[in-house]
Amino acid sequence: MDPDPDPDSKVQQQLDAAMPWVGLYIAAASAVYILAMAADAFNGFRRKKLWFPCKYTALNAASLTVLAVAMKLPMDLNTVMINSETDSSAKFTSLSLMSSALNNLMPSLGSMNDKELLANAAGLSILVITVTVNMAIQVIELQRSLVHVTILCAVMLVSLAMLVSLAVSVSEMKRRLKRLYHGELVLQGFEMEDQRREMMKYWVMAESSCPQFVVARSCVCVASSVITSFFYIIDTLVHVLNGTSTNEPGKSRPMEFTPSGF
Known about the structure:
The chain crosses the membrane at residues 20-38, 118-140, 146-170. Keywords: Membrane, Transmembrane, Transmembrane helix. The structure is a single chain. The protein is mostly helical. The chain has one domain (18-245). It contains ten helices and no strands. The radius of gyration is 24 Å and the shape is elongated. The relative contact order is 0.10.
């Protein structure tokens, strides 16, 4: 008579059986956020506002919750990256999504008051730092994909630093714009043609004084987007070149993990 199976093993099997559903949940959260960013981009093109105002992906509790779910894989220390290329790619893609989200969220800072800026920036910073620390623990312990993860995390932290710097300065930017706008608002003593010209100038000023527009056209926001795009292009090229040089026919990577082997 065979001995009874280990109860712990049975529980582990039951937990493993639920993992595909967890993966679908994470994929759904990622898809929702990507579609929201795509909707903002579509609205920007449709309204000819190429600074892409944040309507569906504004920095708030809802977007932070969706991002936290989408970042479940890089924050999970139990998912070993050496089991397959799929595990590694899923974690790396999540880091890329976070960096893109950080740049996409920057214009929405202009629509917040001081308390909202502090709370949302603090929550986002905690999430990004947690993801970075967990990924650092994994690559240090496994000694694998160190350069790739370092680039992704560095870009993510740079984007976070620029977002926080914008959050600190956006209140003063808004107050300065308000003073300039109200200081030039009164129209008097002009001829009809002068009034028409002045009204057109003030309309343009009011349109361009939209807080999200001011933040989106700031040098910090533009620099963050350029830096992120540049490093991701370089990282993609390096990753592709490394993949073509290491994935030779007839060779496969080891599926088991032994600490002494690294």
